[in-house]
Structures are given as C-alpha cells and as structure tokens.
Amino acid sequence: MHSLKKHSVLALGYFLLIALLGLLLRLFPVVELPINYRFLVHTHSHIALLGWTYTALTTLIYKAYLSKASIERRYRMLFWCTQGTIIGMLLTFPFTGYALLSIVFSTLFLIASYIFMWFFVKHTIAAQKKTHAYKCIYASLWYMVLSSLGPWALGAIMNTAGSGSDLYRNAIYFYLHFQYNGWFVMALLGLLLYFLEQRKIELPHIGFKQFFWFMNLGVMATFCISLLWMKPSNSVYIISLLGSVMQLFAFFILIKHVLPFKSKVNRMDSKLFYLSLKIAAIFFLVKVFLQLLGSVPYFASIVSSNIDLVIGYLHWIFLGVVSLTVLAFLFHSKLIELSRTSIILYLLGFMLTEGLIFYKGAMAWIKEPVMQYYPWLLLFASCLLVIAIGSIVILQLRQTLVQKLRLK
C-alpha cells in the first residue's frame, strides 16, 4: 500500500508537470520563447497520456486486482522500467521531437504496457474474472493494445507516404481515439463497477450485457468521427452517428441500474468523492452530445478545419471526464488526499480554459476576431489549473511529512 501511494504521488507529479507544460505553451502568443513549440506539444501530450493517466490507472488496477498476488517484486521492476521510458521521453521529446531516442523510449513503453496487461490477465484470480468490472477493464486493456497500432504504423507511413499524408494523420487519430474513448473510459467504467461490486451492488446480467455491448460497439463505431475530416461517403457519417447513439444508450442503461442505490452509495463514501463522480458523469454526457453533433456533416466540416474546437474537445475528455474521475478514485482508494478547495479550483480552471478555447473556436467559425486580451485570459485560466494541481501535490507532501513526524 505504501509503495502504491508513492506511485500515485509520482502520477500526480506528472499531472502537475503537464499543467506547467500547458502553461508554457500558452505563453507562446504572449512572449517569444527559445523553445521549439512542436517539440513541446509532443512532450506535453506524451507525458499527459503515458505519465499521468497510464501511471494512475495502472496503479488503481493493480490495487484492485493484483495487490494480493505474489508479484509485488516483479511488478515493482516493471513499474520502474516503465517510469524509465517515460523519463526518457521527457528528456528527449523537448529537444528532438520524434527522433531516434524518443522513438526508442516510446517503443519500450509500449512493450512495458503489454507486459502489464499480461500480468493482469495471468494473475487476476478466477473469482474476479467472472465479475462485470473485470470484463470492462479487460476490454480497456485490449483498447490500449489496439491504440498502439497507430504509433507502430507511423514509422512505415513516414518512410512511404510521409508525415504530411492522410495516412499519417489518421494513424494519430486512431491512437488518440482508442486511448481516450477505449482504454481510458472503459478502464474508469470498470473501476466504477468494481467500486459498486465492493458494496454488493451489481448490475443485472441482462442490463450489464446491454451496457457492455452498446458501449464497446459505440467505441468502435465512433472512430469514424476521426475520419470525417476527409469528407467520406454518407455511410461513414451514419456509422459515426450510430456509435454516438449507442454510447448514449449505454450511459442511460448504467445510470438506470445505479440510481436505485444512490442513497446507499452516498451514505458509505465521502461527499467529495461522490460529488466528483457526479460532475464527471455530466461531463461524459456532454462529451457524447458533442460526438453526436460532430457526426452531422455540417458540424463535422466546421470541426475538421478548426483546431481550437478539436483541442477543446480533447481537453474536455482528458481534464473533465478522465482526470477528474481518476482523482476521485485515487482519493477513494486512500492513495492520495484531496480537499474541497483544490477540486473547486481545478473545476474553475478547467471550465475557464474550456470556455476560452471553445470561444476562440466559435470566433473562427463565424470569422470574427477574438478579444484583444484573449491570450492573457487563457494564461490566467491555465494558472488556476497549475495552482489547483499544485495544491493537490503539496497536500500529499504535507501528509507524508506529518506521517514521518508521527513515526519519530
């Protein structure tokens, strides 16, 4: 348990780092910096997905399914090898972008993630493998593996079609889609079901089957949204729309079966945890409605040529749905401490940055200039996120210090 707390604090360290890198990216329109912007974007995205989210999710999965297996020493070795690849990317991407060393570290990370999945499948006990939660997390890890086909393909694409080709862009979208909507979302849904199962709350078999298949078919079908920038045939738009509708059905099926236990869950857990999950559920519902809109040809053509709307959507999922839920589960699992103030600051920073990013996207859509002080406002909103995440990290360090003083 003690080592898992250290792993969680390390994940939070990555979270703070990506917030600082995001703040640095927001400085570019304001001051001239002697840094390669594109290289910094690569660093920011890799540490966000592989440093913060992967480390936090795998720590939660290990605690739930593998902490009682006799693999602690092997898992620790795997964990620190994985961290070595992340640090390697952190030290190479800002200076070289996609080059030999950064690609080597990225490749080693993928191999380490495959080994984690093998640990999960091999060492989870038979009784847990029969649960609904396990099936969701098992599916999420397959999405993680599936998403890695995108990076594997990039080398061949760059040597043939080139980095400016449609194939190159689609390989990146393939990776991002199955990371965000497959690996991250399905893992969090699995952890939610695990949390409910620990309280003797289980979805009925038919209800879970409907939820599971609608959600997974929706994940597969909504990849087509990532292809709409190419203006494909009408069938691709229809598949995209159906995928979004299936995910909407899955969401309401889950809510339908969980709501009757609302009072029981509320009594057994902290209000901060419960409130965070409710807000994240609302954010997820907004995400699905944005997918529905993005499947309509008119809006698809607007989004495909509007980078701010794309960034706003990705940040909505990453910061609003995924990161907030991860923080809630780390807190619930007693791996980190949270305060109401830090969550309020985080949500305020998140909503302000999202509002400003979508505002800029809307102005580009209607071909109007943004307000004069827009870059400074976005910088200020980003500072709130840094302060919020920084306060969470400081809370962990203070807690560690207090525990050490008590031991003395």
From TrEMBL:
Protein name listed in UniProt: Uncharacterized protein
Annotated keywords: Membrane, Transmembrane, Transmembrane helix
Coiled coil stretches, renumbered: none
Highest taxon above the source species: Bacteria
Transmembrane segments: 9-27, 47-65, 77-95, 101-121, 133-154, 174-196, 208-230, 236-259, 271-293, 313-331, 343-361, 373-397
